[in-house]
Design goal:
The structure is a homodimer of 473-residue chains. Chain A contains 15 helices and 19 strands. In chain A, strands 12, 13, 14, 15, 16, 17, 18 and 19 form an eight-stranded antiparallel β-sheet that branches. A five-stranded antiparallel β-sheet of chain A has the order 5-6-10-8-9. A four-stranded mixed β-sheet of chain A has the order 1-2-4-3. In chain A, α12 packs across α13. The longest helix of chain A has 22 residues. At the A-B interface, α6, β9, α7, β11 and α8 of A face α6, β9, α7, β11 and α8 of B.
């Protein structure tokens, strides 16, 4: 091991290999996961500065038979980017590789290194006059490499897709320490298997993403936000259909929030004025991005909402008058997880269901959970435009949250995931598998798919040195 | 072999196994490729009627060690879906599997079998009130299974992406004859490796696609077409940027056509009135799909073209007044390959280059070819919005096309492909590899990528029974 550490220091420089040998060094930022579910222990944290160093590090680790945990901003929610507690794994932190290598306006692309922070990329693109549309809660600290490794989603997927859809090309270090130069600004390239999309979403188990070419879009001329109360989840789905028809690709956000979820924001953050929540079972947040003008966007919203009123699909609605009102509405949506935390620990789910089946899924699953755990409270909200719900389960009023979590989490997960399977959904829509859900996959994933995944892992990483035990056991 | 034929007949029924034993049976529709470059000879053509039969056929062939060539409409352009001339391969024709299994309007998806003809799917979607946007020249006879196996492109990629981007889930029979049920109406599912996108574009070498869930879109309220003459290819690229900004996602088509390409249409199809071609080096065809109204689309086009005139990016332009004028303009674009054929055999390329580099690529490559083959004529046209050119090379005026093709094809390919590599492009943008380009890949594909592809092929099809010799040798 000492020999490996010496080799690693010779590759990346002494200062870029952090170990527990120096008692003054605190590695918790790399060893502890975002939600503080697991504290691992690394053999070393290695911070290469460019791709050749990453390749050399992987080669050295492979030669030593030491496994590697690639890490970006370490903001993942499924314990996929921290070492296990063995003290034998190398954390390969990509955060020093944070150069924007190129912006190509005519080609609508930018080529960036894995360690670039998402928000920095949004701002870099905007300064150059373009939109980089990937947007999610952790954008201030997550990195594009991690976004790609986990195929991150977020709030604009309904229009722009997940991280995968925004990626045109990758540079990847393989498990053998070879560099695949697959950076590409091409929108069409049919010269073989789609390696790009295989590495995207593989959570660092097949290769280490070191750089990527991402799509850019023209900046919209205007962006408007509306908040609509709907009489039911069925109505929310109908409103989504109307919004697709009226706004076309202008529809860049469609979030749904249940009454109880909004009541928690109203209760714990009374300074936030939550509109319309008290008298309606669900509210919807819509965003319209327009290539023409704010007036045009407003006209479109008005026509959409008029039609929706006439059809009984919307009960009441407000359109933000200005940017600060729009931000305030989005802030309510983003405050739901924090309000939930204030209310106490809860059981979180990140599921997707075909949009058409969401009303039936919720009706059945709500009733099932109420039967099984009387008084249970459901914090249901999410990206309805993508069929993605954060269907969270909170202890009954007055119950002790910690006890609830300890006693009910397994059972509730089982009940919810079985329902997800019945409705042809996914038990992990946007957060990934990591180590948190790896033992659930055999119960809910097609066995042929699992066998194919194992074959691919075995083919590309026969030594099993890349993030072992994540995605696949 | 006779034993295998008997087994296959017991699986799919006697009538659905066609062989040369019956001299009255003409198998050329399955044995001859679309461009008549190769006439193979099959052991048998097998036509299963549902997925379980496909699985049983693959199992039987695998047990007998007989390789399989999956086939849809057999309209591919790279000799990827016909048997070799050994008489030992089974052609697995999917055309009988042509059911639309489901249309889910609220989820904006349809689930269809591999043998569905593309145009039938377009019409089926439209009848249900939706747009299925994949559109290409062979749509009257190609099948969605083949479109997915080759990741087909076409004329609306600038907005909707290639076949891969339109696919949410697949049903696939593996090389072992297992059925992977990966049909999914989900827009977000991060439960493991992206098998879907691995099978899409693998040209039948990794598995047999038997069904797919595809995305639908709302039908646009209006679709307008404009034809603009531009002073240069640089101007065409600038016009593309302006069109992205002005039309946003309304820009659903952006085709470029060189003067010589248009002159061939004017010469060989004089009944077609080609506008503006004679006095300008390039013309551009733009399509604007609008979710509001024809008036709105027209206003947008007018503002775009005004700005383009002011910037000197457009020299002259017409906007189609009605649908029949729009069809006539598209018909000119679609007639270029036919006009070329009238002029005589030529050397075809299907290349892509980052959009920003296309002007320099064409300037350099045009000059290079003129130097190497004085008088050579370049038929340059294609999907500029995707960076995809059909950069075709025609014999000098008066030269014998057949002699030219025989003597110059290898050399011209070499010159053009080397240029493509210099400009970081792809030697096959949308047509795939098949057997026509399989021997070129080692020269132009990253060696690490090729090694990864071989590992994956070996892992998923260790017997090499699925379309051997295609994509990879």
């Amino acid at each position: 091991m000492n020999e490996l550490i010496t080799t690693l220091r010779s590759i990346v420089g002494h200062a870029q290999v952090l170990t527990h040998d120096d008692p003054a060094t605190d590695l918790s930022a790399w060893e502890q996961d975002w939600r503080k579910r697991l504290r691992g222990r690394a053999l070393a944290v290695v911070r290469p500065g460019h791709t050749a160093e990453v390749a050399a590090v992987v080669k050295a680790c492979a030669a030593a038979g030491v496994s590697i945990v690639p890490q970006g901003g370490n903001t993942g929610l499924v314990v996929g980017s921290v070492p296990d507690d063995s003290g034998t794994q190398v954390v390969l932190s990509l955060t020093r590789m944070n150069a924007v290598r190129a912006i190509d306006g005519d080609n609508l692309t930018m080529t960036v290194e894995a360690g670039c922070v998402l928000q920095v990329l949004q701002e870099t693109a905007e300064k150059a006059g373009y939109l980089f549309p990937l947007s999610l809660a952790a954008e201030g600290s997550c990195t594009i490499g991690g976004n790609l490794a986990t195929n991150a989603g977020g709030t604009q997927v309904v229009r722009y897709g997940n991280a995968r859809e925004l990626c045109l090309g990758l540079e990847v270090v393989t498990a053998q320490g070879e560099v695949w130069n697959g950076l590409s600004g091409l929108r069409k390239d049919n010269t073989g298997y789609d390696l790009r999309d295989l590495f995207v979403g593989s959570e660092g188990t097949l290769g280490v993403i070191t750089a990527a070419t991402m799509k850019l879009y023209p900046l919209p001329a205007a962006q408007l936000t509306a908040w609509a109360a709907v009489p039911s989840l069925e109505a929310a789905v109908q409103l989504l259909g109307l919004a697709h028809r009226h706004l076309g690709a202008g529809l860049t956000g469609f979030e749904v929030m249940g009454r109880f979820a909004l009541s928690l924001v109203a209760k714990h953050f009374p300074q936030q004025r939550v509109p319309l929540w008290a008298d309606h079972p669900y509210c919807v947040l819509l965003e319209n991005s327009d290539s023409e003008s704010e007036d045009h966007a407003r006209g479109q919203f008005e026509r959409l909402l008029e039609t929706a009123f006439e059809n009984g699909v919307v009960s009441d609605a407000v359109v933000a008058e200005n940017l600060s009102q729009a931000h305030a509405l989005w802030h309510i949506r983003e405050s739901i997880p924090l309000a939930q935390a204030e209310e106490g620990l809860n059981i979180k789910h990140d599921i997707s269901i075909p949009v058409s089946k969401i009303p039936a899924f919720c009706a059945e699953t709500d009733a099932l959970l109420q039967r099984e755990i009387p008084g249970v409270r459901l914090v249901n909200f999410g990206h309805l435009g993508d069929g993605n719900l954060h269907y969270n389960v909170q202890a009954p009023e007055g119950g002790d949250p910690a006890t609830f979590l300890r006693e009910q989490e397994e059972r509730v997960n089982h009940l919810v995931f079985d329902q997800v399977a019945r409705f042809e959904g996914s038990i992990s829509a946007e957060h990934g598998v990591g180590s948190l859900k790896v033992d659930k996959l055999p119960d809910y994933k097609d066995p042929v798919a699992l066998a194919l995944m194992r074959s691919i892992k075995q083919a590309l990483d026969p030594q099993n040195i890349l993030n072992p035990g994540r995605v696949l056991r």
